[in-house]
Amino acid sequence: MGFMIAQRAFIKVYLITMVEQQRGYGYQMLEELRKDFSSFGYSPPQSEIYRALHELVQEGVLYRTKHLKGNDPKVDFQEIVLYHFTDEGSEKAELYKKQIKGDLDRCLGILNKAVNDNY
Amino acid sequence: MGFMIAQRAFIKVYLITMVEQQRGYGYQMLEELRKDFSSFGYSPPQSEIYRALHELVQEGVLYRTKHLKGNDPKVDFQEIVLYHFTDEGSEKAELYKKQIKGDLDRCLGILNKAVNDNY
DNA sequence: TAATGAACATTATGTTCATTA
DNA sequence: TAATGAACATAATGTTCATTA
User: Fold this and answer.
1) A75 neighbors A102 (Cβ within 8 angstroms)
2) Beta strands per DSSP E along B1-119
3) pLDDT digit string, tens, across residues A44-73
4) How far is CA B71 from CA A107, B29, B81, in A?
5) Which residue(s) pair with B68 in the sheet?
6) How far apart are CA B85 and CA B66, in angstroms?
7) Which residues of B12-42 are buried (b: 16+ CB within 10 A; e: fewer)?
8) Least enclosed by CB within 10 Å: which of A47, A90, A114, B100?
9) Which residues touch strand C (CB under 7 A)?
10) What is the pLDDT of residues B7-31, one digit of tens each?
């Protein structure tokens, strides 16, 4: 076991939740997370998002589809990658989330204890 | 800023608190921390304790004194190292603790948000 | 085994670069 | 600039070894 939860795992859980809600592609999720956490002074690095997504694909949780962003190819032909659950993906994802939930609680326990013990 | 608090910083705060309370030497503090956190599945590695203590000395917060562990040198001549605050040490330590408190709260905020958002 | 310390190895990250229907 | 990805660099750890008044 490590000390705190790994950033990667933390991000993966968010990505899973976002895919559940059909929310967007990598860059978009990155922006959303950055916005959501900016008040905490936390800005997830771009590389971590993509690494996390790649891992989820590797692990057979997600698969990818490519699309053009805009509907008018003349104006906007930027390619984006959307993510979806594979057949066993939803199940795997839930298991993973459950595991990470334990980790989050563990970290909360440790940190709360530290506050109690030292302040 | 990083993601979670670093283990080193976390341990340093505990060491400072322990030195405030005159509790023991490195190995002993290690054992105590391990015992305290065993229920969380967290066992701080030995190297981190010593590294943290060395850093606190480097930073001018603590200084060291060497002693023999037992009072009877025939029975026990194991050398131990005790730590004390330097003149400016207490002040520095309090500042450091204050800083880390902010970090702890930040981490708690992030983790609680994650639980709310994903579960 | 207790106690300290250093050396070594590895992983998780952060940073920068490359590419573009 | 938006979007994706890979490459590179480094810091923070975890693991093992050495030493012992």
Assistant:
1) no
2) 62-68, 79-85
3) 999 999 999 999 999 999 999 998 887 655
4) 41, 20, 15
5) B79
6) 15
7) bbbbbbbbeeeebbbeebbeebeeebeeeeb
8) A47
9) A 6-8, 44-48, 51, 73, 77-79; B 2-3, 25-28, 30-31, 46-47, 50, 53-54, 64, 69, 78-81
10) 999 999 999 999 999 888 999 999 9
Fold classification of B7-118 is Arc Repressor Mutant, subunit A (1.10.10)
Whether A83 and A19 have beta carbons less than 8 Å apart is answered as yes
The radius of gyration of chain A's CA atoms, rounded to the nearest angstrom, is 17
Predicted local confidence at residue B71, as pLDDT: 63
Going through B8-72 in order, the beta strands assigned E by DSSP cover 62-68
Only one residue has tokens 């505990």, namely: B14
